[in-house]
Amino acid sequence: MDPSLPLLYNWAKRTREVLLDYTESLPPEVYIFEHPDFAYGSIRNIQAHVANCYLSWVGRYGLDLERYHDQFEASSLEDASAMRTKFGEVDLVVEQACASFAQPDEIFELVRPGRDRLHVTQRWLIMHPMTHEFHHKGQLLALGRVVGHPLPAGGDTDLVLP
């Protein structure tokens, strides 16, 4: 695999640490509070969606790991600390993919049961959930502001510096 992909993922992972620290600082009832005007409803559910995205695209479709053929339920994670552990699992799956994907830019047909077939690459299987994570990062922070718990002043959730 091209060495730039693990480097880029490491930047995303280090950036995620700011959000994991933030969510662990929230009162538990705020972390799981369901707001009807936000997709996925709660900060926990947004993070679970992001983790499921990685595990599905990389673990299921990229590595064909049986345990990721079904998504986990957000409610199965009690708190933000458990979510941090789940993202540790995500990190291991992405690291495994980076180590084993031998043809990162060769297009192949991905068949998803009951859905359109896609033409993707191994690199895309990692990059898609990375960009998707940054999309949902803004949603998570907006929800935190709406429920009265904005990111503390000086917190920067933009991409970390190299």
Count of separate DSSP helical elements = 5
In angstroms, what is the radius of gyration?
A: 16 Å
Order of helices and strands: HHHHEEH
Q: Briefly note the structural class of the backbone.
A: mainly alpha
Per CATH, which architecture?
A: Up-down Bundle
Q: What is the H level of CATH, i.e. the homologous superfamily?
A: dinb family like domain
Structural notes for this entry:
β1 (108-110) and β2 form a beta hairpin. The protein is mostly helical and 162 residues long. 57% of the residues lie in helices and 4% in strands. 30% of the residues are buried. A two-stranded antiparallel sheet has the order 1-2. The protein has helices at 4-25, 28-31, 43-62, 80-100, 122-146; strands spanning 108-110, 118-120. It has a single domain (4-146), classed as Four Helix Bundle (Hemerythrin (Met), subunit A), CATH 1.20.120.450. The model has no long low-confidence stretch (mean pLDDT 94). α1 packs antiparallel against α4, α1 (4-25) packs parallel to α5 and α3 runs parallel beside α4.
